[in-house]
Task: structure prediction
Amino acid sequence: MVIQEILRLYPGVGFTVREALEDVQIRNKVCVPKGVNTWIWPIALHRDPELWGPDAHNFNPERFSNGVPGACRISLAYIPFGLSPRTCPGMNLVMMDLKVMFSLILANFSFPSRLIIIMFPSLMYF
Result:
């Protein structure tokens, strides 16, 4: 969840370019004619309050507790590495590197236990 939230706020892709294969009408306001390239800026998409809620600019890993579909209104709005067949080929490597990096960082910390166990030796009679 933490990695997904970091990638939502700071995606690895600067922008994604797609070509319209047919005329597309967006919210009955914008018409994208066939053959026109559109640029998608994930940083703006990932911080849109209409998609992610009023706390879209805040770091909140719990938003991914139910996966990507539960985190935002439209699950296809989460594109930290691009979308569909043109997804970044290094995505799996980067995800593995992030997990290793976090495990190495956490290995240098110690977390004290709040539970104190006092053991009393049992008396045995023979």
Summary: The radius of gyration is 23 Å. The mean pLDDT is 85.
